[in-house]
Amino acid sequence: MTRIFIDGDACPVKDEVLKVATRHELPVTIVANSWHRIDHYLVEQVVVAAGADAADDVIAERCESGDVVVTADIPLASRCLEKGGLAIDSRGRAFDPANIGMQLAMRELMRDLREQGAVTGGPAGFSKQDRSRFLDGLERLVQAARRR
Description:
Blueprint: E1 4-7, H1 14-24, E2 28-32, E3 43-47, H2 54-62, E4 68-70, H3 74-82, E5 86-88, E6 94-95, H4 100-115, H5 128-147
Parallel strand pairs: 1-2, 1-4, 2-3, 4-5
Antiparallel strand pairs: 5-6
């Protein structure tokens, strides 16, 4: 059965995930460093110790083929794709085997540029369009996962 995992500490689309999960009756696991005020019959919360990759490690360990992972963490998305999972970021951009290598390389390039001071800004603010793109992208990923 398809499950949805949320990399929960900085995820702005938890409510949208719950809408899609409820529509498809899919269990949701939120993995984070702190407890979230979400009381929903489909949701399991896993609180992990503070640490750079503690939540990522739990998600990558539990993710199985056909599961969907919501994360902005590109290395976590890569780990889940290797296990046959599907991954999407909060702006609705799906990660897949064809683009994950380029995304990992861009992540490293941007990290290097930030360390050199060449890039000082972050991503644009989260918009209603991003939320809409996410809902559409998640719905498509869930349907693809269920067809597997």
